[in-house]
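User: Continuing from earlier, I have the next pair ready.

Assistant: Great, send them over.

User: Here they are, in order.

Assistant: Folding the first of the pair now:
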Amino acid sequence: MRVALFGGTFDPIHRGHLAIAKAAADAFRLDTVLFAPVGRQPLKLEGTPTPFADRLAMVALATASDLRFAVSDLDAPRPDGAPNYTIDTITALQRQMPQSTLFVLVGADSFLNLRHWRQPDQLLTMTDWIVVSRPGFSLEDLSPLKLTPAQYSRIHLLNSVHEDVSATDLRRRLQQEDPCSDLLPPPVLQYIQHHHLY
């Protein structure tokens, strides 16, 4: 099994996220893209506007139509309120799926910030990385990450997705009563409206 962990706040999940997952699954012959909303992101300790349960439910609705997509609460909020670290999530996933080839699917903006993550060198040796191009973030020069040749060999670039969607902008538009129907899957939009989110 070839499995990619796709983490993030998904607040809300949108068509850009789905386009990234589909492109990665096609390009890297992934059996599963595992969407794992994060409980508390270490680099955004102010939290998310939307409760974890709602974000998880929206991800489940958005991904239901593609059999390669799965949803996980592996990165749910921790009982002690501590941040969720990718190193812990990957370690847990490797225990759960010891026979699988694991990848981390991440946007270029997040990946270029990797040196601020917990144990970045260990992360770069534990699994392969699929790094998706994002407008305004160049993957031409990865030298600031100080990668060894072995680490660099585990990084795979995906330049075929050009979705310029920001969840922050989506939330702002939703607050202004713009339904964003061009960017949200219909079941997600229905969920947002039914639960009066944003």
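And the other member of the pair:
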Amino acid sequence: MGVPNASRGNEAQRGVRLTPTEVRVLSLIAQGHSSQEAADKMVVSKRTVDFHLANVYNKLQVKNRVQALRMASRLGLIPFDPFFGQSGE
């Protein structure tokens, strides 16, 4: 009957909650910053940024930055705007 397995994944993802720090890390990555650059901006270690990214990947059930950004945007967890956070240089 129908496609219960296909909808089950969407139901699980709808309940995803990212911490404010995870959103900040993902937003900096979305702006094109490397893990080290994000760490410098947040005044934390690169290891801390990578730890938060690993948590994001796990929560979103993805394997890399591109997938994480697309899924987070699709779920409305971060804004999708190619100019998000960039100055008008």
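Worth noting for the second one:
Confidence is low (pLDDT under 50) at residues 1-12. The domain at 16-74 is CATH 1.10.10.10 (Arc Repressor Mutant, subunit A).
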